[in-house]
């Protein structure tokens, strides 16, 4: 089709384009096709050099040339105007832009306003003209050109503003002049900020004047003008917040503090309280500059990537001590990898971190400062007491401390052990004999990963630990976990009872795959496919699986093949399954697939509704027939 159109004479290109548009499913192309008739009415011609030109919007260069004829602007400014209104050109013809420029200039709007607010040109010309006419009706305005910023507001907002302005009586003739007189601000400046806070005109006059008086009695006039939206709050709320701010640590109260949530205000308080230590920037540009500087310095100190340095910066929330602490740790031969892994210790004051490292260096039998670095997360006084306790005890043949002893027995690195001990500081307070005996008992019957992950079991006496392990070992064999030592007796009994039931059902050394083979009559390959399809079935108690299979096969007469196709049913609640199957039976539905029983409540209810509706329609058809 494309080759045929390319071979046609140029005079048939427009016709060809229309054929393409009418046959296309894209609504946007269809709109453009109908717009080609408007192109002959003193607007830009369509480019027809190729079939691609037939689907183009308009000739960009010709549009820019027309704009340059209307505005004395540079190429860069024309590009900005075009880019800002590019989306509108997909819906409207380029004549909209040129017409709007002519309308704005005819009403004395300066070119500078058009450059600074290019999106105004995307407004339909009739609507733009209507906005200008409405703004001319605003009372007590000598020069309507000053009101140009309001053209960015919606037509509905401008109409409401004019209606309110005409009905109310206020010194100065309107709220713009009133604010200007009360704050000593020039009218164009007031208009600039009021145009972006036009909802101020939705406030009743009494509330507007009252709130302005309250704000001006506590805040700088220039700040009030920049944050006029604060006037929309209830007078009582403004008074309450301003009263609370009087005794705050803030050096200067800003209007935005009146309207932000309490939690945001609290963060500002904290930042000011820490002034002199944590930097507070006057503008976002300075803040970004500082952040970039810190990130680059972290990269150079640790030899890491930009992503890693940003991760450290975010973990430390941009702490002012970040770079100093990294320099100090590097001088102490702390590995960069350890600094990255335990970056949160960098938020401490430099003098505190120095004191912590000095305390750790006094630890007896210290092999490497990297081994105990995670302990820097503790407070200084905690660390001193902890090191003192460790130095007063000697464990094992090498007379080491319990960190190294635990690491040597379990095979973990000392830093991994220290990290967990720092999170569970009670490990340093457990009596020496209990620590040694419990560790020995755990290592005999449990995996080392489970022991390190659940240190709470060490808090129990060796007698209780040995008794619990012996009870669990009789039923579970070698599959013991630390939680069995610390859980309530009822929970342990329940767990052991379920284990007994599962063991009785499966038999010695029988897996769930073998149970499927025996109960459903599948070969091993088919049983394995069920596990592969639904891996979570492995985590379901075999006793529950048995009850679900018995119900489906014995009571509902489903086939093993139905269960294999929808193995999710084995994980579903048996109570819910029974309830839904009974409901489906009542409405005369026996689903061929069990998948509908496993759906969410919303999906299941939709299925039931559709079934009932279909049944009613079928019944009506039969009655008519």
UniProtKB/TrEMBL annotation:
Q: Domain of life, per the record?
A: Eukaryota
Q: Among its keywords, does the record have Acyltransferase? A: no
- State the SMART domains in the record: Mterf (SM00733)
Keyword Transferase recorded: no
**Keywords noted in UniProt:** Transit peptide
Record-level GO BP terms? termination of mitochondrial transcription
InterPro entries noted in UniProt: MTERF, MTERF_sf
Q: Which GO terms describe its cellular component?
A: mitochondrial matrix
Q: GO: which molecular function terms?
A: nucleic acid binding
Q: What family does this belong to?
A: Belongs to the mTERF family.
What is the protein named? Answer: Transcription termination factor, mitochondrial
């Amino acid at each position: 089709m494309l080759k045929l159109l390319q071979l046609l004479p140029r005079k048939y290109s427009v016709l060809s384009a229309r054929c393409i548009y009418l046959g296309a499913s894209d609504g946007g192309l269809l709109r453009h096709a109908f717009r080609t008739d408007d192109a002959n009415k003193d607007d830009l011609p369509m480019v027809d050099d190729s079939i691609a030109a037939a689907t183009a919007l308009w000739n960009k260069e010709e549009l820019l040339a027309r704009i340059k004829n209307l505005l004395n602007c540079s190429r860069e400014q024309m590009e900005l105007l075009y880019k800002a209104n590019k989306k509108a050109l997909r819906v409207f013809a380029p004549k909209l832009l040129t017409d709007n420029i002519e309308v704005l200039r005819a009403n004395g709007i300066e070119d500078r306003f058009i450059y600074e607010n290019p999106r105004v040109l995307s407004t339909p010309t009739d609507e733009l003209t209507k906005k200008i006419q409405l703004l001319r009706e605003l009372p007590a305005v000598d020069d309507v050109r000053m009101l140009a910023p309001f053209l960015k507001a919606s037509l509905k907002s401008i109409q409401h503003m004019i209606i309110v302005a005409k009905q109310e009586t206020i010194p100065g003739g309107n709220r713009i002049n009133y604010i200007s007189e009360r704050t000593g601000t020039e009218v164009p400046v007031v208009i600039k900020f009021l145009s972006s806070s036009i909802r101020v005109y939705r406030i009743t006059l009494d509330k507007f004047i009252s709130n302005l008086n309250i704000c001006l009695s506590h805040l700088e006039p220039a700040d009030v003008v920049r944050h006029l939206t604060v006037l929309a709050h209830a007078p009582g709320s403004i008074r309450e917040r301003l009263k609370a701010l009087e005794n705050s640590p803030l050096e200067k109260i800003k209007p935005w503090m009146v309207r932000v949530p309490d939690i945001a205000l609290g963060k500002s308080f904290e930042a000011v309280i820490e002034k002199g230590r944590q930097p507070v920037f006057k503008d976002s540009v300075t803040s970004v500059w500082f952040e970039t500087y810190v990130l680059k310095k972290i990269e150079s100190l640790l030899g890491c990537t930009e992503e890693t340095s940003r991760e450290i910066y975010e973990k430390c929330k941009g702490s002012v001590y970040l770079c100093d602490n990294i320099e100090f740790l590097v001088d102490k031969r702390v590995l960069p990898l350890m600094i990255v892994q335990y970056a949160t210790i960098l938020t401490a004051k430099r003098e505190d971190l120095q004191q912590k490292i000095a305390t750790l260096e006094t630890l007896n039998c210290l092999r490497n400062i990297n081994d105990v670095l995670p302990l820097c997360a503790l407070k200084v006084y905690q660390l001193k007491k902890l090191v003192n306790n460790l130095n007063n005890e000697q464990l094992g043949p090498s007379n080491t401390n319990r960190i190294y002893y635990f690491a040597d027995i379990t095979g973990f690195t000392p830093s991994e052990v220290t990290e967990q001990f720092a999170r569970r500081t009670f490990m340093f307070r457990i009596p020496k004999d209990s620590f040694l005996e419990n560790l020995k008992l755990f290592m005999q019957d449990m995996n080392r990963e489970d022991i390190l992950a659940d240190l709470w079991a060490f808090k129990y006496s060796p007698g209780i630990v040995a008794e619990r392990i012996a009870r669990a070992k009789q039923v579970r064999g070698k599959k013991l976990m630390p939680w069995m030592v610390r859980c309530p007796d009822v929970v342990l009994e329940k767990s052991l009872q379920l284990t007994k039931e599962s063991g009785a059902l499966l038999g010695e050394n029988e897996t769930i795959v073998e149970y499927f083979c025996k109960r459903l009559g599948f070969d091993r390959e088919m049983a394995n496919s069920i596990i592969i399809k639904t891996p979570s079935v492995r985590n379901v108690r075999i006793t529950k699986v048995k009850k679900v299979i018995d119900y489906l096969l014995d009571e509902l007469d489903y086939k093993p093949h139905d269960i294999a196709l929808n193995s999710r049913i084995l994980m579903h609640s048996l109570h819910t399954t029974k309830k839904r199957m009974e409901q489906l039976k009542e409405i005369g539905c026996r689903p061929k697939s069990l998948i509908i029983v496993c759906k969410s409540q919303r999906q299941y209810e939709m299925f039931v509704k559709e079934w009932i509706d279909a049944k009613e329609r079928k019944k009506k058809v039969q009655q008519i027939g």
